[in-house]
Design a protein that fits this description.
- This protein is an alpha+beta fold and about 725 residues long.
- The chain has four domains: about 210 residues, f41 fragment of flagellin, N-terminal domain; about 120 residues, 2-Layer Sandwich (Beta-Lactamase), CATH 3.30.450.20; about 140 residues, Four Helix Bundle (Hemerythrin (Met), subunit A) (Up-down Bundle), CATH 1.20.120.160; about 180 residues, Heat Shock Protein 90 (2-Layer Sandwich), CATH 3.30.565.10.
- About 60% of the residues lie in helices and about 15% in strands.
- The chain contains 22 helices and twelve strands.
Length: about 725
Amino acid sequence: MAGKSGLDDGKEFNPGAKPGYKTSYKKYRGIIISVALFLLLDASVLLFNFYVSFEIADDAVGVNLAGRQRMLSQRMAKTLLVLDASRDDPQTFKTAFDELQLSKGLFDQTLAAFINGGQVRGAGKEMVALAPVHNRLGKDSLLHTLELWRPYKNAIDLFTTDVQQNAATENSLAAAVAMARMHNLAILTSMNDLTVSLEQVAASKATRLRIIQTVGISLAIINFLFIMFHFLRQLRDSDRVIEKARRETTEILETVNEGLFLIDKNLMLGEQHSAKLVEVLGQQEFAGKSFQSLLENIINAKDAETARAFIELLFDPKVKEKLIGDLNPLSLVEVNIAQSNGGFLTKHLQFSFARAYQKNDGMQEISHVLVTVLDITEQVKLQRALNESRKHNESQLEMITGLLHTHPGLLREFIANSFNCFNRVNNILRQPAKTVQAVREKATSIFREVHNFKGEAASLKLEFFENAAHKMEDTLALLCEKRDLSGNDYLGLTVQLESLITYTQQVEHLTEKLGQFAVVSSTIPRGKAIANHRSDGWDHLNDFVQNIALRNGKMVKLVASGLSEINLDVDYQQKLKEICIQLLRNAVVHGIETPHDRELSEKPMVGRIDLRLAKVSETEMELTVMDDGKGLDYTAIRTQALSSGKWPEDEIESWTNKHLLGLIFHEGFSTAAEINKDAGRGVGMEAVMNHVLAQRGKISVSSRTGRHCRFVITLPIVYTLNREEIAA
């Protein structure tokens, strides 16, 4: 009966057939036609896919051979240069000559195949068929290459003939080398254009294949839906529910203010993501993309690898999600988003991760990880602005506090000296320097000026200026170490100098305001006024010594005498102060021991420094700085000289203590273990020597190990002019 029924179904147009069978056939005719069309579309798309795939494979061979042409052109040029350089080396000459012949033949054969079609040896030494290139860009590239290749090939052939006939090859080789130099780059460009054209052809075929596939699959899906409509009509209500849920999901993804997407256990992104994600991470394809590759496009590979390891922990059911929340490496990350104009947009993003579960056989399993991306760039900028504002306010408060503790006269003198220092540094920077040595000497000269400025700031306990000068010294130290130093390398230092000048101008303005306040306050009755502290211009040195001693963990007493007894010229007195500052810093840092070491040496825990200025004649004065510290460490000086590499070792070993003593005034020489605000630059004592030499003075040093070190400087007296002399 089954067989008969099937036979009767096939007799659609048989008049003797029963009406019931005809009705049954017609009932399923639409389904049969839909299935047939479905199979036909699938078969057509499959056949077209095979056809285009073979064409794309052939195009890939062409692209590879076009790339090989570029390599062969480079190889021929290189081989000709090797031949030119190895005329006296027969073995090398023969090897290069064989390679030249092979490269030339393969290049010429492949070029002809690209133009006219034909067989050519492939990358694996097998013969492959090349079809003629028909696209316009490719043909133009080949014709241009052919024009360049003909004279190039003729030159190579002429050279080859000379070699084979044992004739002189100097002229022919020189001509071939000249052709290589003349045409190699142009041939490379043409072959690159050929490669691009072939890639474009392959890309267009791939695009056409995708379109056909899309259309075919779309039609097949329509047929499939039509078939399913007949069999699954009862699922219509369920489909409506699913569609409604999909619309709601889409609306949610389009309206949320965060970038949302899912990643699976293979760290691949899901098909759905929120619309905000495109705005946060830039226009790109997200669906099916690797999460790690997405991160590597915006952050460095190391951070991306760390994030990958963190997400793998989220997929491990043995690890508690709450326990690893603080380990999130992307809680705040700075990223660089590529822009359409070729630039990059810097953003600050916050990634958060949450597990997504799915029931499987009644068990909850981790199926995905939900990633939320927030653009917190504005919050970060606001926080930074607040931090900068706080730092600025703290700096202003620190500045005001420092100014209030500094004598107005000394402060005005410091500001004037500062601007003079800045002008000298500017003049040094502006001086033309035609040699590398002259450019390097600029850094050395600026170093001296900045170091003197830092010393004066430290003596007045103006910490901001001291720190700014120390940072400039760090910059100068890096410049001095740079081998290929140029004028452009001073740009960073110029910025620092401008900032320091601006700050000094602010201090000057504030000082004027404070001066006005002092004038107003002077009108207060004497009984209610606060006594002004009288300064002779030297009393700040004690605070300077105590500040350095505190930083270095030492206890020091400064005993000064005679500093105000000689009426010196203002500028000359400033130079004398700079000498005192450098010698006092040297005494505290290198001379005076720590209280513990002094106690072990049966010395008072508080070290002593004597600073004395005395008039020895009508034209000369003597400055003495003496400390009761450990004295000069000649062993440390010798060791530092050896490690510097500036002098031969055997020469250093023969030096006497007197010779070693002279090294402390050498540029860049220091026995300090590390560089800090107070030591390590090797500039202070050199500055002292420069001041003494500039004034045609004399300096003598005496030291006794474990007992003292004394500097005695003899200088001419430059008197200040009184009012009567100025008026005269």
